[in-house]
Amino acid sequence: MDKTHQRRQQRLRIEAGPDVLSALEAPDVIEILLNPDGRLWVESMGEGMAEIGRMPPRRSLERTFVADVLTPEQWRLNMSRIRGRDTKPELILRRGLHALGLRFRLHRKDLPGKPDLVFPGYRAVILVHGCFWHWHGCPMFKWPATREEFWREKIDRNRERDHAALEGLP
Questions:
Q1: Distance of alpha carbon 4 from alpha carbon 49, whole angstroms
Q2: Which of 1, 39, 104, 121 would you call most buried, defined as having the most Cβ atoms within 10 angstroms of its Cβ?
Q3: For residue 65, which of 8, 103, 123 has the smallest C-alpha distance?
Q4: Using one digit for the tens of pLDDT, what is the confidence trace for 77-89?
Q5: Is pLDDT at 9 greater than 70 in this prediction?
Q6: What is the pTM of this model?
């Protein structure tokens, strides 16, 4: 670990407090979020988001800092685990629809965009799109602060592909 990375981590530990410190040291933590009201949330591999505590009020809104606490190898590993199918929102939706007695096909390759759920009897499809990758106007979406041009082009291409897939459906 280089000295710059160590300094950033140390500053984050000092500024954010013990809750963030424990999350930083947990090997399975993927993301740490700070709400404007000071609540801290952690996402771990294989689990959803969980509230872990609060930052002291004087620190939560007073100061904004950005520290990259992951090495490039850790980022690559995290990004390689992002799935395009069988995501948590998709599984929740599938379970709920199945419990209601609805039957469907998954990821039909013969349809444009390979819809997540296909209801052949109703001639209907459901596409489960996340806030980040498909930017559908959700208030939870936030443009990345680094490599802005790359991300804008990528997300714009995703949106164009989504639109073309919807237009191509029978």
A1: 29
A2: 104
A3: 8
A4: 888 887 778 888 8
A5: no
A6: 0.52
